[in-house]
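User: Here's a chain of 166 residues. Predict its fold as tokens.
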Amino acid sequence: MSGVPLKQRNETLQAGLRKSPAESKRLLLDYLLARPPDEQVHVLPGEVDAGRRVVEVKYRRGVRPEGYEDQVFVHAPKKTTQAAHLWVQLLVDHDIEKLILECLDPAFATKEFLTLIDPRSFMDLAEASLALTLGIGWRARFPRFANRLQENEKARTSEKNREEQH
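Assistant: Prediction complete.
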């Protein structure tokens, strides 16, 4: 869209015809917040206490690639300060992929692995990562902070648009 005038590009983005990367990332979080209960990954208190949960993964190619597993461990951050950092980072950039990569075993903590799995498995890993990082009740706490951040983003966007018009 580099040859498209700024005003037209903004109108296109606002119309939702072409989402910005930030909006696309936010869309994943919005989906996770509203994910139907029968699709949710339920992390148990004992799994939070242990700091890990096994998540079943399926691959887009239909069969497990050689060297990969059908189940992977998702781990909680080792330190509370690391969990807090991941929480703030998620609120700022909405990048759920970063959180997942931080919570996977090193053998699976690659973008290559994430490109092999199907979208539902990606969302299952995201949900388990959120529960192990933020706690089981993350859905109840997340919207309040996310809404505040979204209001701040709208204010920054509005201010930026005013600056571009002058």
